[in-house]
Specification:
Elements (H helix, E strand, L loop, with lengths): L1 E2 L2 H4 L23 E6 L5 E6 L6 H18 L4 E13 L12 H4 L41 H4 L6 E12 L14 E4 H13 L1
Antiparallel strand pairs: 1-4, 2-3, 3-5, 4-5, 4-6
Helix pairs in contact: 2-5
Length: 201
């Protein structure tokens, strides 16, 4: 996990960027969107997992937005970020087959096959020609190498994720047990207004 400098990384996205990605609730800790859970000493862990193509700074902003929303909904004025971390995680289930390609799933016909099946009249050598060693339709069931498609394994996409440990409060005084240095403190309302205004552009 890399330490994330929120002051530099958040609220500093380029003005020429395209529309912001959707802001949404996640189905779990590693699902796309925001997720939160209670932590020790009344603190809150806030996680935002970005969608594919989201920049780390956008993910960090959305984590801050969720922390601000939780602060306001709990009747507090500010939140302090006690710890912030950024990492890349995989989203998606390797056991789910929807969204993947292949003749069985898409209904397309295939010219590749073992033992001479399929129409190979328009296929180039080494592409769908079972007589060419190394071709995808070569053997495996009647001799020759195993087709590379059989050896290929689908892996879920990797996306950015920001995790914040926050403490909420109101007023001008606060104590942060267990910290040696003062944390960054944010006005929840200001953070909400700034990020939502950017999302509306």
């Amino acid at each position: 996990m890399k330490r994330l400098t929120l002051v530099a990384a958040t609220l500093a996205l380029s003005a020429c960027q395209t529309a912001m990605p959707s802001y949404q609730a996640a189905s779990g800790p590693n699902g796309v969107g925001y997720f939160s859970a209670p932590a020790d000493n009344g603190r809150q862990a806030v996680i935002y997992t970005g969608e594919k193509g989201m920049k780390p700074a956008q993910v960090a902003e959305y984590a801050l937005l969720r922390a601000a929303e939780l602060t306001i909904s709990s009747g507090q004025e500010w939140f302090a970020v006690l710890h912030a971390a950024s990492q890349q995680v995989q989203v998606g289930d390797v056991n789910r087959i929807d969204g993947r390609s292949g003749s069985v799933l898409t209904g397309e016909s295939t010219t590749a096959g073992a033992g001479g099946a399929g129409d190979r009249s328009t296929a180039g050598a080494g592409v769908a020609d079972g007589s060419v060693p190394g071709g995808p339709s070569t053997g495996g069931f009647g001799g020759g190498d195993v087709p590379y498609q059989v050896l290929e394994r689908w892996t879920p996409p990797t996306v950015h994720q920001t995790t914040l440990l926050v403490q909420m409060g109101s007023g001008k005084e606060a104590s942060f047990e267990g910290l040696e240095t003062a944390p960054e403190i944010y006005s929840a309302q200001k953070i909400m207004d700034q990020i939502r205004a950017k999302m509306a552009r």
